[in-house]
Structure formats: structure tokens, C-alpha cells
Amino acid sequence: MNERKILIVDDEAAIRDMLRVALEMADYQCIEASNAQDAHSLIIDEKPDLLLLDWMLPGTSGIELARRLKQDEVTATLPIIMLSAKGEEDNKVQGLEVGADDYITKPFSPRELVARLKVVLRRTAPKSESEPIVIGSLCLDQVSHRVSINDQPVSMGPTEYRLLEFFITHQERVYTRSQLLDHVWGGNVYVEERTVDVHIRRLRKVLAIDSLDYLVQTVRGTGYRFSIKAEA
Asked: Which terminus of the chain has a lower count of CB atoms within 10 Å, N or C?
């Protein structure tokens, strides 16, 4: 049996059964909850590796639970896949904005669910501490907190390092300034959103040593994204 534990949160027993069977066939451990309160208790006690969370729940909604989890530093890194019959783009955006890692619209096939779950788990899995993260000429060592470009050490401030570490482990997603403040500075620290821009500029200046500043991209009207694909 896979050591990965998945918490299924849905108020419909038939849906939970279908999800559990599909996941157990793929060798995942499953635990279940029918409401947000029970789900939160299981998250604290069982420490699942991923949360499959239905949008519509009795009492506290799935979207509200996701928001609370992402605002609590104890549960902020728990990967969440939202499940919903709501397919409208605004709902998807809302789900992703509160911190969900993926959004799957019902009805969906068990095969699609398992495939997307594997992607999220792979993307959110902590890197092995013995493995530096390498992108082209850029190398970030999470053990020593050192960054090098073309095998030459580069100097950067602690905030720039944390920004780079967050970006490099959360590629291809757009983050607002507010989300970056929560993830990099911490939810209990009061910092003006424009401070993010200052540190982004400093980080880009370091990356520009080897023309890597394109990796940190401005998404107009939204925030920033780290991408190895050059902007069009």
C-alpha cells in the first residue's frame, strides 16, 4: 500500500465510496469526512498528504475550509484539490485563489482524478534535501541556503532567497502580492504589498547576472509567476 494518505471530504456517501475505490485501486490510503468540522479534526490528527475537498458542504463550505487551512501556518502547505459541479471560470479562479492546487469539475473519470492527484503530489512533494534544485545555470541548495549561477556563488538577502525558494518550488502558478506575503513573509507579519515589488526587483537584479531575470514574470493586474517559459 502506498504510504500517501488522502482525505476525502464530501457529504455524499456515494461520491466518497467512488473516490475511495478509485484511490485504493491506485494504492493510496484513504480517510473520509462528510463535513468541514470532521475534516479539520482529521487533518490535525491524521496529517493526510492531500485533501480532496468538495466545494458544497453542509455548514462550513469547502471553499471556506480551504481558505482557513491556507491561512493557518500548521496546515498551509497541505495540497488541496477542489471538487465541484461548478464549472464556471469564476468559481475555478476563486478556488485557486484561496490556495487550492487544482480544481476538478464533476462529473470526472476516476482515471483523470488519479492522474491529476499524482501531478499535484509530485509538484508539492518536498524536494530531497540532498538534491539542489537546478534550472539552467541557476542552482539553489536548500540545505546550505546557497544560490549559485554558472557554478559561482551569488549573494542575496534572506527575503530574496525565500522568494526564490518559494518561486522555484511553485513554478508556473500566478501569485498575488498578498499571497506572496502570506507564503514568504508569513501570515502574521504586517508588510505593505508594495514591499513585494521591491524584493522582486532585487531578486531580478541577481538573476540578471546570467540573463535569468525573465524567470520571474509580472502578470499584469494580478501578480507574479516563476516560469522557465519566456514571456510572449
From this structure: C
Full residue range of the structural domain in which residue 176 is found: 133-226
Grid coordinates representing 105? Answer: 469539475
Q: How far is CA 119 from CA 50, 79, 174, 224, in A?
A: 12, 11, 18, 22
Contact call for residues 64 and 41 (beta carbons, < 8 A): no
Residues 166-220: pLDDT tens digits? 999 888 889 999 889 888 887 556 778 889 999 999 999 999 999 999 999 999 9
Q: Which of 124, 155, 170 is at the close of a domain?
A: 124
User: Are 105 and 185 members of one domain?
Assistant: no
Q: How far, in Å, CA of 95 to CA of 90, rounded?
A: 9
Length of the chain: 232
Model pLDDT for residues 55-91, shown as the tens digit of each residue: 889 898 898 999 999 888 778 889 999 888 766 656 6
Indicate the pTM of the whole model: 0.54
Q: How far is CA 13 from CA 10, 17, 32, 44, in A?
A: 7, 6, 9, 22
In the chain, what is the straight-line distance between the N-terminal and C-terminal CA atoms, in Å?
44
| Phi, psi angles (nearest 5°) of residue 141 | -105, 110
213 near 154, Cβ under 8 Å?
no
Residue 103 CB contacts under 8 Å (≥ 6 apart), including other chains: 81, 82, 84, 91, 92, 95, 96
CA distances from 196 to 183, 206, 213 (A): 12, 16, 16
